[in-house]
Amino acid sequence: MKIEARGIAVRLGGATILDGVDIGIAPGEFVGLIGPNGAGKTTLLTVLARLRMPDGGQLLYDGRPAGALGRTALARRLAYLAQGTQVDWPLAAEDVVALGRLPHAGRFGPADSAADRRAVETAMAAADIAHFAGRPVTTLSGGERMRVLLARALAVEAEILLADEPVAALDPYHQLKVMELLAGAARAGLGVVAVLHDLTLASRFCDRLVLLDGGRVKADGTPGEVLTDAEIGSAYGVASLFGAHDGTRYVLPWRRIDDQAAE
């Protein structure tokens, strides 16, 4: 499924959150959605997932108005991982992952077909949570719950995955593991969009970056094209260090520009 957003505008409480945003998402690419706090990243993700109706602009799925695709069909083709790790019910981790199969089963209940079981097991192994499959999610750490919720999204076996800060609660080992997982899934044909704050991870793993600032797309391109000293300085107000290791470019936000100017 290909997603096209054209001229998307969102206004909340008199404030403009998104202002004329154009973005396209295709299967087989890993897109990092970056930008400072309040730039509109989460809002844009919810619009792309059709969880929020924009105040202006047009959202297309495969070239057709998004509303033409029914809710069940959309739930099978697009998976959404929300920000945060709040889980209110003490379900076993495996049962939470199995909820990702609901769009296919059409009912509430544990996965019971061979395809469901295979999808759940594969997703749990990919997210490195198989060893606590039977534990209530309410007993897990924030990072462990995030991996359970990621596995639930992967179990959908959708064509597009929209993930809001999927590595924010994770330790360095699992940050790398999840980024490798998402990059590998994109290479296998999944379209992945992830809101990211770590510019080094974004630079290393993403095929493409979309930089939002003030509700508008400030830059859209390869990590090398987007993560320049000028773009980072303008959007984030920081000066960065750049380098390369094992043939991969990296960027390290190093100093606030206002501090630098004061010296």
List the helices and strands and how they pair.
Blueprint: E1 3-12, E2 15-25, E3 30-34, H1 41-48, E4 56-61, E5 64-65, H2 71-77, E6 78-81, H3 93-98, H4 102-105, H5 114-126, H6 142-155, E7 160-164, H7 172-187, E8 191-195, H8 199-205, E9 208-213, E10 216-221, H9 223-226, H10 229-236, E11 238-245, E12 248-256, H11 257-262
Parallel strand pairs: 3-8, 3-9, 6-7, 7-8
Antiparallel strand pairs: 1-2, 1-4, 4-5, 9-10, 11-12
Characterization of the model:
The protein has 263 residues and is an alpha/beta fold. It folds into two domains: 1-77 and 158-262, P-loop containing nucleotide triphosphate hydrolases (Rossmann fold, 3-Layer(aba) Sandwich), CATH 3.40.50; 86-157, no CATH class. It is built from eleven helices and twelve strands. The chain has helices spanning 41-48, 71-77, 93-98, 102-105, 114-126, 142-155, 172-187, 199-205, 223-226, 229-236, 257-262, and strands spanning 3-12, 15-25, 30-34, 56-61, 64-65, 78-81, 160-164, 191-195, 208-213, 216-221, 238-245, 248-256. Strands 6-7-8-3-9-10 form a six-stranded mixed sheet, with helices on both faces. Strands 2-1-4-5 form a four-stranded antiparallel sheet, covered by helices on one side. A two-stranded antiparallel sheet has the order 11-12. Helix 7 (172-187) links the parallel strand 7 (160-164) and strand 8. Helix 5 packs antiparallel against helix 6 (142-155). The protein is globular. The model has no long low-confidence stretch (mean pLDDT 93). This is ABC transporter ATP-binding protein. Part of the ABC transporter complex HmuTUV involved in hemin import. Responsible for energy coupling to the transport system. InterPro entries: AAA+_ATPase, ABC_transporter-like_ATP-bd, ABC_transporter-like_CS, P-loop_NTPase. Belongs to the ABC transporter superfamily. Residues 3-239 form the ABC transporter domain.
